[in-house]
Design a protein that fits this description.
This protein is mainly beta and 101 residues long. It has one domain: OB fold (Dihydrolipoamide Acetyltransferase, E2P) (Beta Barrel). Helices cover 15% and strands 39% of the residues. The chain has one helix and six strands, in the order H-E-E-E-E-E-E. Strands 1, 2, 3, 4, 5 and 6 form a six-stranded antiparallel sheet that branches.
């Protein structure tokens, strides 16, 4: 848990210093989105720091968690294919959303 918190803090600090929605995260590129529409295990979202968009399904979510409209998520992509190379999606508590539940 402490290790995950440390990683989350490091990612948060790197996001604060970045001017775009894109971050290098190990072997993947991470984008941060706010979920704007949820329908039958399908999700749509818009970039927190830019006007990018994302579409993913429940099969892309790395946990069994289901998201709701307004949740903030991190989407991981292969660095050589950020358009179609979605690897996984997980909830983000890096933008202050943790206290809303």
């Amino acid at each position: 848990m402490i290790k995950k918190l440390g990683v989350a803090i490091a990612l948060f600090l790197s996001i604060l210093s970045a001017s775009s929605n894109t971050q290098a995260c190990g072997e993947y590129v991470a984008f941060i989105y706010k979920v704007t529409k949820v329908e039958n295990g399908q999700y749509w979202g818009t970039g927190i720091y830019d006007d990018s968009n994302v579409y993913f399904t429940q099969g892309n979510v790395v946990t069994t968690e289901r998201f709701q409209d307004g949740d903030v998520v991190v989407a991981y992509f292969k660095p050589d294919n950020v358009e179609d190379g979605l690897v996984g999606v997980e909830r983000s508590f890096l933008v202050g959303e943790e206290g809303k539940r």
